[in-house]
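User: Could you walk me through two proteins back to back? I'd like the raw sequence and the structure tokens for each, with a short line separating them so I can tell where one ends and the next begins.

Assistant: Of course. Protein one, sequence then structure:
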Amino acid sequence: MNVKKASVPEEQAKKVNQLYSDARHWKSNLQFMQDEITFFSGLLNSYIFEPNTPMLFERLQDYQERLKRTIARKTEVTQKILRHENKLGGMLECKDEACDLGFYNKHNALKAEIVSYVHDFQFLKREIFNYAGGILKKKRTKE
């Protein structure tokens, strides 16, 4: 019986370590995304996109505004991850499955939010690349 009791804390520690690992992975991805956001911000504010056509200028303004919202959302998601990490230690004190389930439910809800954020950012990136590619092709043919 003592062997079983000794393994329960070890199993609980493994579960907590896996959740911490997920959180570190999320933070790493968000940090990489920050580098991409910085690149896109510089790109959208570069002289290449001087407005010649009102429709293109409106699209540029839309992308810049959406990028600002992306930055705000990234900050919010990052803070949620940090708060989640801080609470994970409490999982070691869980004595029953219901307690564990509560942590897993919160973890999975946060994971879903991160997946949604990443998906939205990927969609915005694709739009910006298409926009920039079209502008660059037009500039190249004029020269």
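----
Protein two, same layout:
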Amino acid sequence: MSKRDDLIVKYAADIKDKFGETPNMDLLTKVAIGLGPAIYNLDASKVSGSDDKELQTVKNNFLIKKLGLADSSDLMDAINSVIDKYGRSDKNKHRAVIYYMLAKHFGKESIYN
């Protein structure tokens, strides 16, 4: 198994354990591939739920630029909802899992097709 495959298995376990959902492995794989080399970088592969600048980056770079959503308060509400479900105190919030959950939340899975 490749390192990417190992990471995707870890992300799938997080989705199952933290969110109580069976992940769509095809979508999860595409989200991980879309993140490119960031998934291998310890800092870039994680999202800090307590860093407002980091959450703004998720909003601007992923929700607005990648998913094409219009800027609104709903975006930060969705990010905070995912962070809360993941566990705000959990220091290992994987970016791929957050992006996967947000894509599903907004019904934007087709972006990865």
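The chain has one domain: 3-112.

Let me know if you want the two compared in more detail.
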